């Protein structure tokens, strides 16, 4: 019950409801809080027609009043809904709690007389008081009854009381002699609370006590304190009991309301019968909601399992990433060792060459120095004859030695620089570009059987990726066999999801399949589809004028979240007052197609729209508001065509409950035509239709429709011939 607590708290004070009253918008508020947020409005801005309290004006009445320019001859006919009637039009500001605060009004003298209240009743409310719902911000002008005009929500008050009682301290056993134990049951007949030992000792489950009813302590306390149900009295005739229910105003009334009030001409039913009927309806709605809650719980279990799997996969993936990076680091270290080895070899080679040259030059220098010293000593001799005997030989030796030094001997054979430059640029760029790539191949495509067909010796196949698949797809490969059970061969490779293969054999059965591919590889094949070509040939003109009979339903995966589908996705309605879009699960790009939509329920003159749309059409506005949809919207009197928010061709004649709206899409002429009750509605709605289109509908909660497909084209329509200039037979 803890989840219910927020439903039992006032939106103004945040505490549990105390004396809650029901506003016309069906929201609840404490009586004291309602007095606190009252504001006063000027006399001139509070017409009697705008006053709203608990007098029984239904939400649908406000919708009818607020539907603008529906019957204007100059407008487009599109009715804009502003919600509920606003009370005053005086400029106002919003306080932090969402309540409108109006400019101070000229003080009005208090009324000389008002309805007398019972002792302890609330003081009188000033005239022209305005109350704004803190949840939906709908403003209401109170009448002379003030807050007493709103019905008290006794059911909510009782639920709050029971909830608060269930939260109090546990009950004790009434038969324990010393320290009482916590009670586990209560006997409704004995009116005594028992713990388990005392129940076995004093209230055995046999004999005359076996028929007594034992209930949990909390339930027993509630049943003990519950007083007989109070008889409800009328808010307008306080001495009269509420005994009937006004079907039109959707509120309980008394006999005096039927005799004197505005409910005299309305349809009324017995209060008890309507009480049981609405209880049954609420039970049915709760059963559906319970199924949704069960699905939500299962979905939460699935999500929690996904969290666990994500954590496990995350640890595994992180370990794999660390291992891959470590492998790269190891490879870089190995390469580093190889490059260092090359540097060391170059270093040793340079040292060896320089050291050899040093040794060679040292020996030659020693020889040269010895020769020079010897020649100097010879020059010192004074014996001419002896000098001349050796002078020629010494001169030759000196020249030879000098020549040896002049042949590059004094030039280094090796430079000190290392002629090695590490080219790390490409590797650094590769490291910077290191990233994750798509490692999974695509899932197997799904063949869209509604769009797959054969005409003469041509076969058209259409497919799509699974709805929840997020793997990137670069293209598709379509394969057909030879029509005689032979091997498959590729007939198409590309990014399109629809393909027509011409030139097949007549009266043959071809097996077809398709698979998707991306950078990681090729995925699995789809299911194999057998397609039978025609027994005899037809001319291209005949082929183009054939109507395509297609079966499809509404698509829950692409519909707006407010859309409610039933009847195997053939019946649709909405839980919002705003227009919401739902599309068919099949798209069309060629041929002639016709489908019908019957109106099952039509309340308060809404404007449903019917037509075709692109796959990326807006889902939260009326069909035809953007440039992705071509539609006809219609009320109970007339219709308009709309595309890209442009309204054209207003035509008399509307829809009602059990009406039928037909949509004729002819790609051979490129036109779109609408019908209402088997009669064409207006001229050709749109021309130049080409590409891929999906059937589409927009509606709100006041409309429910059912889709009918697989229908032949109407008898009055003769399909046209397509332009065959580009056809190849």
From TrEMBL:
Q: Does the keyword Coiled coil apply?
A: yes
The residue ranges of the B box-type domain are 168-217, 229-271
Tell me the Pfam families matching this sequence.
ANCHR-like_BBOX (PF22586), fn3 (PF00041), SPRY (PF00622), zf-B_box (PF00643)
- SMART domains noted in UniProt: BBC, BBOX, FN3, RING, SPRY
Task: Give the matching InterPro entries.
Answer: B30.2/SPRY, B30.2/SPRY_sf, Bbox_C, ConA-like_dom_sf, COS_domain, E3_ligase_FN3/SPRY, FN3_dom, FN3_sf
UniProt-recorded Gene Ontology molecular function terms? zinc ion binding
Q: Which residues form the COS domain?
A: 379-437
Q: What is this protein called?
A: Tripartite motif containing 9
Name of the coding gene: TRIM9
């Amino acid at each position: 019950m803890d989840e219910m607590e927020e439903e039992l708290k006032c939106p103004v004070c945040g505490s549990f409801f105390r004396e809650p009253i029901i506003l016309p918008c069906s929201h609840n508020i404490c009586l004291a809080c309602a007095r606190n947020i009252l504001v006063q409005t000027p006399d001139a801005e509070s017409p009697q027609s705008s006053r709203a309290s608990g007098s029984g004006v239904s939400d649908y009445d406000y919708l009818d009043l607020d539907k603008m320019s529906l019957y204007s001859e100059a407008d487009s006919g599109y009715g804009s809904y502003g919600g509920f009637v606003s009370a005053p039009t005086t400029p106002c500001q919003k306080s932090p709690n969402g309540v409108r605060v109006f400019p101070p009004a000229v003080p009005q003298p208090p009324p000389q007389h008002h309805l007398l209240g019972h002792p302890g009743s609330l003081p009188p409310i000033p005239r022209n008081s305005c109350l704004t719902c803190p949840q939906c911000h709908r403003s209401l002008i109170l009448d002379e009854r003030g807050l007493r005009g709103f019905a008290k929500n006794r059911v909510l008050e009782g639920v709050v009381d029971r909830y608060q009682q269930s939260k109090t301290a546990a009950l004790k056993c009434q038969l324990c002699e010393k320290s009482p134990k916590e009670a586990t049951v209560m006997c409704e007949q004995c009116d005594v609370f028992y713990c388990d030992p005392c129940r076995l000792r004093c209230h055995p489950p046999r004999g005359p006590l076996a028929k007594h009813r034992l209930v949990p302590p909390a339930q027993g306390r509630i049943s003990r304190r519950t007083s007989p149900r109070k008889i409800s009295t009328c808010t307008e005739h306080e001495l009269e009991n509420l005994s009937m229910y006004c079907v039109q105003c959707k509120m309980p009334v008394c006999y005096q309301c039927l005799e004197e009030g505005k409910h005299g001409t309305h349809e009324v039913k017995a209060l008890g019968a309507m009480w049981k009927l609405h209880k049954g309806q609420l039970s049915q709605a709760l059963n559906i909601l319970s199924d949704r809650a069960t699905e939500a719980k299962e979905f939460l279990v699935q999500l929690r399992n996904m969290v666990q799997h994500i954590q496990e996969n995350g640890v595994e993936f992180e370990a794999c990433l660390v291992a891959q990076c470590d492998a790269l680091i190891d490879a870089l270290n190995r390469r580093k060792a190889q490059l260092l080895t090359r540097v060391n070899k170059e270093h040793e080679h340079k040292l060896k060459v320089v050291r050899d040259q040093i040794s060679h030059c040292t020996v030659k220098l020693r020889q040269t120095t010895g020769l020079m010293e010897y020649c100097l000593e010879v020059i010192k001799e004074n014996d001419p004859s002896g000098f001349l005997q050796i002078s020629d030989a010494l001169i030759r030796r000196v020249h030879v030695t000098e020549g040896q030094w002049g042949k590059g001997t004094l030039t280094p054979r090796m430079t000190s620089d290392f002629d090695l430059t590490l080219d790390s640029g490409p590797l650094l760029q590769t490291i910077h570009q290191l990233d994750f790539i798509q490692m999974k191949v695509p899932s197997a495509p799904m063949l869209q059987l509604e769009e797959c067909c054969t005409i003469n010796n041509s076969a058209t196949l259409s497919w799509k990726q699974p709805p929840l698949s997020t793997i990137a797809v670069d293209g598709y490969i379509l394969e057909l066999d030879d029509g005689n059970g032979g091997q498959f061969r590729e007939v198409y490779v590309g990014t399109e999801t629809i393909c027509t293969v011409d030139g097949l054999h007549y009266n043959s059965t071809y097996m077809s399949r398709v698979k998707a591919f991306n950078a990681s590889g090729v995925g699995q094949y789809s299911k194999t589809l057998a397609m039978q070509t025609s027994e005899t040939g037809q001319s291209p003109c005949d082929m183009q004028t054939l109507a395509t009979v297609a079966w499809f339903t509404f698509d829950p995966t692409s519909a707006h979240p407010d859309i409610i589908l039933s009847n195997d996705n053939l019946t649709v309605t909405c839980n919002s007052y705003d227009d919401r879009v739902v599309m068919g699960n099949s798209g069309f790009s060629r041929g002639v197609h016709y489908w019908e939509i019957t109106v099952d329920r039509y309340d308060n003159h809404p404007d449903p729209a019917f037509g075709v749309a692109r796959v990326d059409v807006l889902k939260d506005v009326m069909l035809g508001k953007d440039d992705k949809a071509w539609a006809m919207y219609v009320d109970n009197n007339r219709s308009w065509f709309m595309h890209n928010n442009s309204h054209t061709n207003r035509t008399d004649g509307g829809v009602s409950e059990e009406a039928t709206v037909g949509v004729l899409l002819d790609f051979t002429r490129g036109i779109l035509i609408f019908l209402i009750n088997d009669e064409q509605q207006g001229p050709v709605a749109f021309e130049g239709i080409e590409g891929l289109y999906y059937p589409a509908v927009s509606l709100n909660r006041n409309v429910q429709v059912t889709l009918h497909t697989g229908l032949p084209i109407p008898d009055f329509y003769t399909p046209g011939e397509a332009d065959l200039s580009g056809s190849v037979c």
